[in-house]
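new request in #modeling-help
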Amino acid sequence: KKVLHENQRIAGELRKRFEEQHVLCLNLISAPGSGKTTLLEKTLNCFQKNEKVALLTGDLQTENDARRLAVYGFPVQQIVTGSVCHLDGKMIERALEKWELAALDLLLIENVGNLVCPSSYDLGEAAKIVLLSVTEGEDKPLKYPSIFVKSDVMVITKIDLLPYVSLNLERMKANARQVHPGIEIIELSCKTGDGLDVWLAWLERRRDSVR
Amino acid sequence: KKVLHENQRIAGELRKRFEEQHVLCLNLISAPGSGKTTLLEKTLNCFQKNEKVALLTGDLQTENDARRLAVYGFPVQQIVTGSVCHLDGKMIERALEKWELAALDLLLIENVGNLVCPSSYDLGEAAKIVLLSVTEGEDKPLKYPSIFVKSDVMVITKIDLLPYVSLNLERMKANARQVHPGIEIIELSCKTGDGLDVWLAWLERRRDSVR
Ligand SMILES: Nc1nc2c(ncn2[C@@H]2O[C@H](COP(=O)(O)OP(=O)(O)OP(=O)(O)O)[C@@H](O)[C@H]2O)c(=O)[nH]1
Ligand SMILES: Nc1nc2c(ncn2[C@@H]2O[C@H](COP(=O)(O)OP(=O)(O)OP(=O)(O)O)[C@@H](O)[C@H]2O)c(=O)[nH]1
Ligand SMILES: [Mg+2]
Ligand SMILES: [Mg+2]
Ligand SMILES: [Zn+2]
Ligand SMILES: [Zn+2]
């Protein structure tokens, strides 16, 4: 399709700019309500005030997520997509006109809540991160394989709820590895803080790789 | 768009056939993992063996949901959509070639897990039903308004998890009523059985209206 082709061109340009300016760009993807914004809140809460991080967050309607993230003092922009169920390269390009990439070294993008389309639209990111909560069932990696194949990391969220759901956690991880043998898996809870250190360490390692 | 126009034509024909044959057709929509299949399992479990019900369930990959539903002994077909993140009229039309509508009086359709696209594709259903679990956050009706506007009923699922999530349930309901003032709201748990009677009563009332 011509649309994806054009998007790929824009994404390629963005990726070049990120690499030239040593900006690590990450694209967080999940179903609605899996915990993307909450994980970003906890992450920003651990950063020093002088961190050169900025955030873009996409939703069909509302500025809710940007408002939640803005309280931490870092630059945030909401991208309201109207009826489009994914972010695309053009939206990122337009949003970045307002910022100086040279002043950043981390760009976190929260995509629209959708396990399907966002996996087809490259945003120039260094890595896709898929979040899957323990309340959604272990079969999602098999049912929505594309995003699990394309993600470097699967973050299993809300593990504090494990005692209350009939989830087979090992099965969930095995299913992810079946569609993407090399995928890294991090288990965490933003409520208890369990596993947040593993996520922050992963983030730090990736930032080091582009410095 | 021409695609939606053509879909609308097919959906209109399907709706006519459902009405002529007195078949109640319902279209269940939610984010991935909100509990559609589980609710259908509990529903089928309450039916007599001679109920004239059939089910269609859509997913990008796997026959998992059809397998789960098939154990109750009613006709079930899985529609594997490949990369399409919603069911459309053509897929329903094709699936129905295998069945005699005259032999049915209830057709339950479980859509692909996605809060966006399925709201634009009419399947000829008498009503859309949107499921939203208590683990997804109270803001979903505001963020994904279209499906809440178009649904007759919002089923709030997994209420057994309320003590463990920081959800404002009244806020969730108020948000749904803000985008769709007349929406009916049913709260239930498939784990404890709470509220299942309200859902079954709603279903019975709707079936009566097409008999
Ligand atoms: N119990 C528990 N609840 C959590 C956790 N993380 C997030 N939540 C809850 O999950 C719901 C959704 O969280 P969000 O962070 O808004 O999810 P999201 O992925 O950003 O949602 P969208 O942007 O709408 O796609 C909220 O009610 C959160 O309080 C967790 O670790 N444990
Ligand atoms: N605690 C609790 N868990 C539930 C309830 N209903 C469903 N679940 C769990 O939620 C997960 C997803 O349930 P499914 O019924 O497969 O969800 P679905 O909407 O059909 O998912 P997709 O078809 O993949 O979109 C499973 O792990 C279920 O066990 C409930 O009432 N309470
Ligand atoms: Mg969010
Ligand atoms: Mg299902
Ligand atoms: Zn899309
Ligand atoms: Zn779609």
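bot summary: Residues A 135-137, 143, 164-167; B 30, 32-38, 65, 113, 157-158, 160-161, 189-191 surround guanosine-5'-triphosphate (ligand 2) (CB under 6 Å).
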